[in-house]
Amino acid sequence: MMMKNVGSRALVALFCGAGFSAACSGGGAVNIGNTAVIGSQLSDYAASWDGYAEAYTFTPDGSDRVRLTISANGQGTLEVGNLALVAPPTDPNVGYPPGNEDTKETPTPPVWEGVLYPIYGAQVQTNRIQVGIKPNDYYAAWCALQTPFAFVAETSFDAGLPGLPGLPGVEVQWWAPVDGGAGAADAASGTMMYFACPFPPGGVESNAGTAAQMCDGENGLWGQAVVPVDCGKYYLCNSMVCACTATSCTSSPAMAVGSPPSQYPVELDAALDSTGKTLTGTLALSTDLRVTVVLQKQ
């Protein structure tokens, strides 16, 4: 009898050593296959999130609310504040939104209320999700209504300007619009650039000097007849909210496919808590402005 019990104990030990966990668990199932840490996969963040920014409010309503939606493949949107979504633009020849010309300032704050900002380049690194945002997506629909205009420049634009290639600190000597006119330059002799307006920001150099670009109604190019320009459109064009190719315009900056979130003007970098229901991180609105956001899974 003693020999049989010893043999039974030895057999049970053999089963346990061979990985038969169900026979050794004392009645509870043991899962040894799922070792993924919460927040280590993009799918862990797939949800609708709602929360707030700490000690910061958004323009123009002054709300601190932040909402984020993320799908399992990393697509989604960021929305701040409580305002209703801004109506889409319908007229490419006037500024957006209506009344923008009254500000007489660069029109884009870090992010505005009333806009669903697409998120870009979603990725997970060291159990943190990172996504990029383009503030000028506020104007994406307005830019899409624009007809690109081509200009030739003697040198490239400063690389710091949105959506345009070039070298730092290089000034531009504009030659002419490519579509003709007095003194129009050969496109092959300079750098081709495209704009959402029939003039480049900052003025046009010509034989007669710099053509005035005035918000009180008229613009001249290379001695051509002046044409009326809506003040709101002028400010948007001069602020370079659009990036254009030969065939279309979109919001600036023009980003290469696969660009990491850190290369976008605004970046969200956040981590989940141990329950997977609270997302806390930093919304980097600029190099000098970083805001803590706390979001709850809905």
Main β-sheet description: 9 strands, antiparallel
Roughly what percent helix?
A: under 10%
Poorly predicted spans? 1-33, 162-167, 180-185, 204-225
Structural class: mainly beta
Q: What does this molecule look like?
A:
- This protein has 298 residues and is mainly β.
- The protein has three domains: 1-35; 42-134 and 257-297, Lipocalin, CATH 2.40.128; 147-252, no CATH class.
- The protein is 10% helix and 26% strand.
- Strands 4-3-2-1-16-15-14-6-5 form a nine-stranded antiparallel β-sheet, with no helix packed on it. A three-stranded antiparallel β-sheet has the order 8-7-9, with no helix packed on it. The chain has a two-stranded antiparallel sheet with strand order 10-11.
- A hairpin with a 5-residue loop joins β14 and β15 (278-284).
- It is elongated.
